[in-house]
phosphoenolpyruvate--protein phosphotransferase
Amino acid sequence: MLSILRSLVQEVNSARDLQEALDIIVSRVQKAMNTEVCSVYLLDPASNRYILMATEGLYKDSVGKVSLAYSEGLVGLVGSREEPINLEDAPAHPRYRYFPETGEERFRSFLGVPIIHHRRVLGVLVVQQRESSRCFDEGEEAFLVTVSAQLAGVIAHSEATGAISGLSLTGEETQDVSFNGVPGSPGVAIGTGVVVYPSADLDVVPEKPTENIEQELALFQSAVQAVREDIERVANRLASQLRPEEQALFDVYLRMLDDGALPGEVAIKIREGIWAQGALKQVVQQYIRHFEMMDDLYLQERVVDIRDLGRRLLSHMQEGEQKLQEYPEHTVLVSEELTPAMLGEVPKGQLVGLVSVKGSSNSHVAILARAMGVPTVMGLVDIPVNQLDGRELVVDGFEGQIFASPSSDLRAFYQAICEEEDELIRGLEVLRDKPCETTDGHRVSLLVNTGLMTDVVRSLSHGAEGIGLYRTEVPFMIKDRFPSEQEQREYYREQLEAFAPNPVTMRTLDVGGDKALTYFPIEEENPFLGWRGIRVTLDHPEIFLVQVRAMLKASEGLNNLQIMLPMISNISEVEESLHLIYRVYHEVREEGYDIHMPKVGVMVEVPAAVYQIRELAERVDFLSVGSNDLTQYLLAVDRNNPRVAQLYHSYHPAVLQALVRIAQDAHSVGKPVGICGELAGDPGGALLLMAMGYDSLSMNAASLPKVKSVIRSIDREWAIQLLEDVLLLDSPHVIKSCVDLALRNAGFGRYLRPVKSSSAAMAEQAVS
């Protein structure tokens, strides 16, 4: 059965359209199960009826004509119950519904299983048999369930392709087809889709040796030089749209093209006798494997950059002709995997939106998009990319949604949002230099999370009061070895100088297991619970000591450094870390550096730390909650896994209760506590955190003006009452709705996504 299933999935995947896919399914399943009838009924979103879409065994003329209401007949019963129904004598069942045009009166045995994709019932797969004595056995039922589960995604994709083409299952015209992804950059854009494809495919490069090593080396070096020139050209083209510091993203690309980085490793492979394209493939795939194992989303997204570089190098080696792409006046760039270099190909002033099937809010593209103010949606599932080329698209970067072929009503609705956002941003600029305090005088520090100078520039322009989290992994990621003390010192000094005299909190190196460096590989069966964070650096004090020494020396004359320890789960880790930090501090002082002892804090990311707050706080100067990781660990949910992402919710009662406890326990021993994560950048979440007593909120720079505006407009007692009300609720979705409603009633509705019109609400019922 396994080989039959594998062959079936491959055949269906290669189908040209939905109808062909369904015809393959009914034909192959009927043959595999040796049954007389196999049919597929799909649920039409427009009419909410099940339509017979393909059959082997029933009359073919009934296809597309026979339909059942949502809960009608045995098909409707299977769909509404969302489980298989296996009957020996179907006509005797009270829910049996007879359609003479199908000729099904001859068949008595019935087995139906639902086709479900991402909790949405797509349809029902049915097999039938003439003999009443035959009841489909457990093995056959299990096989049909397996077929349904395997093919649900393919059917969803094919169905979406048809919907984008403007046709429903019944052949009627459709509009406002929506797809859900992940917000990458806020805002709304309306424009024409332009689909861009990778220039070359490394996966299909064959493995073969070479005898002419020098020729292969020369070919590869020529490709490296050509790609370097391409990237410099793109960077220059974007120079007028970006601040000079924001072009640091392209420096990351260029550093990876240094002889000591990726090209050096490829050259070694070539000298070992592998042809240039194969050597490039091996090195790029090795880089990708290491990066994909990483837990930190910001660093995990570097896979996109490495893959893009590999494709560009391969393209030059293959001497493929570069197709001249035309860009309309309002371009929405669409790709399986967008890269920063792709953005630079669009002429100035014509790029209005971005859509990427892969990626998250931590990708380089998302960072650039936020810097450029381009609405972006990432991480779309089951979207037929090639169908979006040339179509009018609405990109909703607030909700992470796109709409294909919008109706005039939907277009007008989103056009109004565009105008409102422009007006709102202009109004918030006046708050830049004003303090973040409530109307009754309660002060909260607003900080930012950074990793590149790009983030720093944007943060300063939005009035950030310091850095709540600087990811020190960046200088380690762009090297093919551990960076030296001097190299680290230069990176850290940049950040410290930019914000002086405001505090800059640097997290010590957070790698290991799921975040392996290419030159420091770690393989584990369960990396999420393995050797990572502080566990790695304490096991390798030579790494930890050099990093702390570089931080301390970089702070000379500024003294705004704060050091934060990641993934702390017990007291001994804190005590051992402090011992090493004090040791380095005294050594650096003895070398003649005039520095102050920095404040040292711990990150609360592991549930174990929640129950040791007092003990931890007694040993350090401050605490900072890593709310994203803490939420994932508390709920046992990877928010980047589309199968369970809907279970990840920052407003989950368990998360809020943990956050309340952390703030109370930290203050009970007189220590400040902050938070860095998505919840802090949400206006409603920021109000709850402020009410809990958090002293500082660290967030993405783009979120800062709205959070400041809301906090400056309310008194703390109002926020405390809101917190007390929502802590009595037991559903994260109800809690979020209550917080949003309270904000709207208080006059802050303009900071939330406006309520959708009936047209948009109807669109959400379409393919998503």
